[in-house]
Amino acid sequence: MQTDITTQHHWLHRLLGDWDCSADAIAAPPKNSTWTEHVRPLGGYWVLCEGRGLMPDGQEGETLMTLGYDPARDRYIGTWIGSMMNYLWHYDGVLEPTGNLLTLHSEGPDFKTEGKRVPYQDIITFIDDRHRTLTALVHKNDGSWEKMMEMHYWRRT
Prior knowledge:
Helix content: under 10%
Largest sheet: 10 strands, antiparallel, barrel
CATH class: Mainly Beta
Organism: Mycoplana ramosa (Mycoplana bullata)
CATH superfamily: Calycin beta-barrel core domain
Strand content: over 45%
Protein name: DUF1579 domain-containing protein
Strand order of the largest sheet: 1-2-3-4-5-6-7-8-9-10
Distance between the termini: 37 Å
CATH topology: Lipocalin
Number of helices: 1
Shape: globular
InterPro entries: DUF1579 (IPR011473)
Order of helices and strands: HEEEEEEEEEE
């Protein structure tokens, strides 16, 4: 099925390029991890965000996020995988009216209770064209959201 490339697809192109990243862990004592991310297009419909860097334990890590837009559902969709786990995360999200905040909803393993699944959110926020964040939240039993981590991305010049 071929559809036109929409303004929502073009929004994803804001992510294209090479980025320097730093993470501040919220759920554990702060440890600086240096990451880079290369974001490339796949046709006009998808972006592939390929991350690489050191994990807090000093081991090499790699991640791959895919993002696209489904016009039939008016939703942003995608996946996330990382070399540090064997779980495939599926995204379903919406762009805020400001055009600077994309909230991606997912469900995944509860890292505190084996066999339990809980809701998650990854929120991409553009501060400006050279700086963005990715904030990861987990849904708690009391109905609130807890910040797990926040990554800052700075576009390379």
